[in-house]
Amino acid sequence: MPKSSRKAASVLEEVTSPERTCIGCRGREAQHRLIRLVAVNSDSDSSAITVDVRRRMSGRGAWLHPRQECFALANKKRAFARALNGVSDVKAVQEFLAQELLADPAPAESVRTVQPESGSEI
């Protein structure tokens, strides 16, 4: 693919992909980089959160970066309960993130590909 068409494709992707706000860090990101969370009714009176992998489940959704830091922030701020109307059970999200971290231990943003030329550049 020529260089100009690659640049145009990346610009087009940025323009057309919808942005969502992470309930943990409150950062805005393209929708495809976040996971969607949905409240589902369990057998008891309380509701639980499930990860909507296909992003097709009905109901109100909340968005979260697939990072442990954002999960911890959302849990600390009680953002799950606010975003999904009083939901308290977040075990499914915790298990999903644990599986994701095992599959991909280092996110691409944190991997350094270029080494500094001298020892003073860190």
The strand order across the widest sheet is 4-3-5
Low-confidence runs (pLDDT<50, min 5 residues)? none
Strand tally is 5
Helix content: 25-40%
Question: Which structural class should the secondary elements be placed in?
Answer: alpha+beta
Tell me which CATH architecture applies here: 2-Layer Sandwich
Largest sheet: 3 strands, antiparallel
Rg result: 18 Å
First-to-last CA distance:
34 Å
**Mean pLDDT over all positions:** 81
| Portion in strands | 15-25%
CATH class: Alpha Beta
Number of domains: 1
Helices, by number, come to 4
H/E series: HEEEEEHHH
Q: What general outline do the C-alpha atoms trace?
A: globular
CATH H-level superfamily? YlxR-like
- CATH fold-level topology: Hypothetical Cytosolic Protein, Chain: A
Description of the structure:
The chain is an alpha+beta fold and 122 residues long. The chain has one domain: YlxR-like (Hypothetical Cytosolic Protein, Chain: A, 2-Layer Sandwich), CATH 3.30.1230.10. 34% of the residues lie in helices and 19% in strands. The chain contains four helices and five strands. The strands form two sheets. The chain has a three-stranded antiparallel sheet with strand order 4-3-5. Strands 1-2 form a two-stranded antiparallel sheet. The longest helix has 14 residues, at 3-16.
